[in-house]
Design goal:
By secondary structure, this protein is of the alpha/beta class. It folds into 2 domains: 2-254, HUPs (Rossmann fold, 3-Layer(aba) Sandwich), CATH 3.40.50; 259-375, Isoleucyl-tRNA Synthetase, Domain 1 (Orthogonal Bundle). It has 12 helices and 14 strands. Strands 5-4-3-10-11 form a 5-stranded parallel sheet, with helices on both faces. Strands 6-7-8-9 form a 4-stranded antiparallel sheet. A 3-stranded mixed sheet has the order 13-12-14, covered by helices on one side. Strand 3 (20-29), helix 1 and strand 4 form a beta-alpha-beta unit. The structure holds zinc ion (ZN). Residues 26, 64, 205, 230 line the site of zinc ion.
Length: 380
């Protein structure tokens, strides 16, 4: 399978470097229910993993859940609850959504389980003089990182102009915050050398990657809005930590879901919860709807578009159940090859779905249809 690599700008082959394809996916930050934008990412990588597994590839796909974040602390404060209560609650809700969507290819990691790793890695960077203290925080010195900015196609000057995580004592505005000790997040970890603080967002991901994959893996996936600064920073950290210039082969990104011209996000108050959609439509229709658009294109949510897939779902169901004596009940034809050729070319679910629907309408090629339905994770 070839899949688009934001770093190379090409469709690169998803091939395991050491026998098992290792995938890390940026999952939600758990301070609220998950929404359709999250479902798009979860279902996309579920499809990729299932397709590759059914084709005999060994694969480990980790969904990384951020459960250390100021947004979680803010919600805890609002509800007079603890950070642990909020994150536990919404991780449980996310797991219910994942199960209800029929996703069974992804393993879960939560970043708070990797704080110990973060501490050790940051202490190592400090002792190698790759990291430095400023005002109670620890930063990664980016001055000697040649390829910093390559993923997001930003020049050195662009990076400086972005001025992320600005604080007194920072050597260069583009240096990457590793350990945040400056604010009260209601969630602190103690280290005698680092002081109170929390491993900062990008470092949380790098710690999971270092702990599970030794920092070397095949695909890092997530929403397209994460390219900068999140993925650029993770790449810089992993390059420094592993001394490997290409710790991750493919950086892959899924387009945003928007509604009424705005990104679907809790902060805009325009989210459509996975939970509510499942109640009304069920997982088949959500899958059909999301897969009808190529994953790299932005998806503008439309309820009337979603409603159209009720009848698609029925067409598929009736083709499967009312054609018990079809001559192609067990033998697959060239339709399967055509279907897989679409997926092999940067996971073109849109073209694959058109073929699936056409095959269901013909009510003849049932073995092919069953295979397509299985890859799409549809249940009848
Ligand atoms: Zn992440």
């Amino acid at each position: 399978m070839r899949i688009f690599n934001t770093l190379s700008g090409l469709k690169d082959k998803a091939t395991p470097r050491d026998g098992i394809l290792k995938v890390l996916i940026c999952g939600p930050t758990v301070y609220d229910f998950s929404h359709l934008g999250h479902a798009r990412i979860l279902l996309f990588y579920d499809l990729v993993a299932r397709y590759l597994m059914l084709n005999g590839m060994r694969i480990i796909a980790i969904l990384n859940i951020t459960d250390i974040d100021p947004k979680i602390s803010a919600r805890a404060k609002e509800e007079r609850s603890s950070v642990a209560d909020i994150s536990n609650r919404f991780i449980n809700e996310l797991l219910i959504d994942i199960q209800s969507l029929g996703i069974n290819t992804l393993s879960i990691a939560r970043t708070s389980d990797y704080v110990e790793t973060s501490r050790k890695l940051i202490l190592g960077l400090l002792s190698e003089k790759r990291g430095y203290f400023a005002n109670g925080n620890v930063y990664l010195d980016t001055s000697s990182l040649d390829s910093y900015g390559k993923l997001s196609r930003l020049s050195r000057q662009d990076l400086v102009n972005r001025r992320v995580d600005i604080a007194p004592g920072k050597k260069t505005p583009s240096d990457i915050l590793l350990w945040n000790g400056s604010d009260d997040f209601g969630q602190k970890y103690y280290d005698s050398s680092l002081g109170d603080g929390i491993p900062w967002w990008h470092m949380q991901d790098s710690s999971v990657a270092m702990s599970i994959f030794n920092g070397i893996y095949d695909i890092h996936g997530g929403a397209t809005e994460l390219v900068y600064p999140h993925h650029e920073s993770i790449l810089a950290q992993l390059r420094t930590l592993t001394s490997n210039q290409q710790p991750v082969q493919i950086w892959n990104h899924v387009g945003l879901v928007s509604i009424n011209g705005k990104k679907m996000s809790k902060s805009f108050g325009n989210i459509i919860r996975i939970r509510d959609l499942l109640r009304k439509y069920g997982s088949n229709i959500i899958r059909l709807y999301l897969f009808s658009k190529h994953y790299r294109e932005p998806l503008v949510y439309s309820q009337s578009e979603l409603d159209k897939f009720y009848s698609t779902d029925e067409t598929i169901a009736s083709a499967l159940w009312k054609n018990a004596d079809s001559k192609n009940l067990y033998r697959r034809t060239r339709l399967t090859n055509e279907f897989t050729s679409y997926l092999e070319d940067d996971v073109d679910t849109s073209a694959a779905l058109e073929l699936l629907i056409e095959t269901a309408r013909k009510r003849e090629y049932i073995a092919d249809l069953r295979y397509m339905v299985r890859i799409f994770g549809l249940v009848y």
